[in-house]
Amino acid sequence: MRCWFDLIRVRQWTKNLLVFVPLFFAGRFLEKEAILSEILLFFLFSLLSSGVYIINDLHDLERDRRHPLKRRRPLVRGSISPAAAAGAAFFFILFSCGIAISLLPPGTIVLLASYLLLQVLYNLLFRERAGADVIVIGLGFVLRAAAGAVTIGVPASAWLILCTFFGAVRLALGKRQAELFGGKTGFRPGWESVSPQTLHLSGALSSAVLLFSYLSYCIFSATARRIGILDLGRLLSDFPPFLLAVPPAFFGVLRYEILAASGRAGEPEALIFRDAELFGALFVWILINLVVLALTWSGGIGR
Questions:
Q1: Which residues pair with 239 in a beta bridge?
Q2: Phi/psi of residue 272, each to 5°?
Q3: What percent of the chain clears pLDDT 70, i.e. is strictly above it?
Q4: pTM as predicted
Q5: Closest by alpha carbon to 31, among 152, 118, 128?
Q6: What is the pLDDT of residues 145-181, one digit of tens each?
Q7: Which residues contact 201 (CB under 8 A, 6 or more apart)?
Q8: End-to-end distance of the chain based on CA atoms, in angstroms?
Q9: Would you list the domain boundaries of the chain?
Q10: Over the Cα atoms of the chain, what is R_g?
Q11: Does the N-terminal or the C-terminal CB of the chain have fewer CB atoms within 10 Å?
């Protein structure tokens, strides 16, 4: 069973938690129907991406045999036969598409299909093109977030989409930094000639745009306008409550920059759980936003 978990990359399903972000900021995470719809979408994205991972492993089988770490993958070790893996891949993809067509809105189906097409294009055209690969990865995360919004019938904020894109690009660049610094996965084809300094500057620029987009979301988004403002009298007036969560968000970005600069961001899907400071920043950020949304519902904020 462990070899199957490794094959379908269950540890990378955490990326698909992004579909819950619109549910969270729309304040609908207590609505049973909306929650169930997003859970279904999460598993469909997970199965769809697992099918793509298996196809990639089948395609790269000979190359992975020569890789110091990828040669431990189930297909290379012979723990799972190529025929069984191919059958599982096509089952995951067909099952996901069938369930989506049966149960999800047309807009979500289009976004799922777009995600699948994007993965195909990534592997055929962009995977070994430095720069283009991380942009395509960022677009994949945008499709996840947009699908989460469409599924529950809420508009996807342009600022939130920008946050998602540049946040995903930064994570991908952090992984490239780990690879170029001699991280766990070795050099990525297409990135060998890129200097660590250039990659670090690219990551820092992405983080800067991410923070600008997040600040803009906190002040100018439809959700921020709906919540209203917090009047603290002489201390602060006309204060957007979402800005209360900016310090932990900023600390989290800085912490990630420190980890990426030292080549320790090679597994972004697991890093958040391994680094206590990064996890703590995320926890505090979520807690503050929950309090803001709860006060909004109770009438404690907004005028």
A1: 230
A2: -60, -30
A3: 90
A4: 0.89
A5: 152
A6: 999 999 999 988 899 899 999 999 999 999 888 887 7
A7: none
A8: 55
A9: 1-122
A10: 20
A11: N
